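Hi, can you check this record?
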Amino acid sequence: MPEIADLQNAVRSKGLEPTLRALPDAGVYITFEEFRGRAPIVRGGREIRVDPTAFDTPLLRQYYTATSGGTTGAATEGRADLTHAANRLG
């Protein structure tokens, strides 16, 4: 698994896009099931259990809470950024 210094060196020597494309092969990725908290993150023999709120950003100041329809599993609740939504609407 790459360390932060490895990533910094890769960006300097190869550029951002090639470095980002190489991350999944190095084990740096999150599956949909992991993101939703339905499966633990298992990499390099380590297991990290997460819940659906593990990926919520603490930087959101204005948000609304929405619940998924549960079509691919149990319904989950998530936060949506109101500033981002307002910017997209113009």
Observations:
- The longest strand covers residues 63-67.
- Residues 13 and 19 are 9 Å apart (CA to CA).
- The radius of gyration is 17 Å.
